[in-house]
Amino acid sequence: MSRIRVAVVFGGRSTEHAISCVSAGSVLSALDRDRYDVVPIGITSDGRWVLAPDDPAALAISDRDLPAVDSRGAALVFAGDPTVKSLVVLDAAASPPELGSVDVVFPLLHGPFGEDGTIQGLLELAGVPYVGSGVFASAAAMDKHHMKQLLKGAGLDVPPYVVVRAGEPTPAAVAQLGLPVFVKPARGGSSIGITRVDSLDALDAAIAEAHRHDPKALVEQGVLGREVECGVLVDADGVPRASVPAEIRVTGPQPFYDFEAKYLGDSTEFDIPPDIHGDTVTRVQTAAVDAFRALDCEGLARVDFFVCDDGRVVVNEVNTMPGFTPSSMFPRMWAASGVSYAELVDRLVSDALRRGTGLR
Question: Under DSSP, is residue 199 helix (H, G, I), strand (E, B) or coil?
Fold first, then answer.
């Protein structure tokens, strides 16, 4: 039997470019070359698509140096033609002769211009199946404002927040949130651009920092609770299932689980499963699946929670393409649930092929 041709797409134009590269390196290492014909495709920080080397080691963080897509590869575009399903090479002389159509895309893009429905729309036009949620769910989950509206509409508990747009005065309702608050880009990830504010004197600077990354920002009420995450993965029949949850504990000097704590330091500890009451674990898992369904997610998601002392389970956010780095929580939670990294990748590719494209 011929191998399944998988295009692994990574990098991209968002501030999470480097983390996308690290995720891709891990997936490239896990894909079984006896089963898959792998085509690595990098998107540079300015949006150029290039054929990338099949070299996972080049995509790892080394001594705090973050990886990036090398722009020197052969330039590519995806044909938006469902009768072709092909990669079009702009520099044919630099392309290997076997480059052509692909069976499925694994879009390991985090943040805007990738995780937000944009590449999903391109792949729908091209008629190429892809891992993860479709256009609507990707866009809705990426925008924390609309995500929270949909989750609240589904009866899930979310933190109070206020939207602040660039060029407009800060709404008076921000003062009613109390302190601390977290100011964050509405459409970002990996904790980039997020500031914890403990004094109103620091609010304007925090909003300005968020607006450096996104003209739409959220000022969100700080929730006193334990940070717990849960993975959701569909089974062979497309039914979403919840993983063993995990608790994140920041033990270093960082004020919260920020970029430094996530990727560059050793000041974070994880409890898988978390040391919380069994009933609370069940409620977290149920809420994770409910959030997945509320946004019409597909394939996979990581749902982040605050578990409060009074028993409340508050949804912080939903990530439709969570990190796949060696330290990322999504694969670690599924490993604790009995699904290895390689099996996780296989299941996601199989699910994408099962679903196909178009209305579903």
Answer: coil
Place of tokens 């898959």: 36
Sign of CA dihedral 190, 316, 137, 233: positive
Say if residue 113 is in the same domain as residue 254. no
DSSP 329: H
User: Tens digits of per-residue pLDDT, 198-242?
Assistant: 999 999 999 999 999 999 999 999 998 999 999 999 999 999 999
pLDDT in tens, 248-279: 887 655 565 555 554 555 667 889 999 998 89
Residues 6+ apart with CB under 8 A from 45: 11, 12, 13, 17, 68, 69
Give the domain extent around 216.
161-221
Beta bridge partners of 88: 77
Distance CA 279, CA 309 (A): 14
The phi and psi torsions of 271 (rounded to 5 degrees) equal -115, 110
What CATH number does the domain containing 230 carry?
3.30.470.20
pLDDT at site 97: 43
CATH for 206: 3.30.1490.20
Amino acid 299 reads G
pLDDT of residue 318: 97
CA 273 to mean position of chain CA atoms = 22
The encoded tokens of residue 297 equal 């997610």
211: tokens are 């607006």
Say whether both 182 and 259 belong to one domain.
no
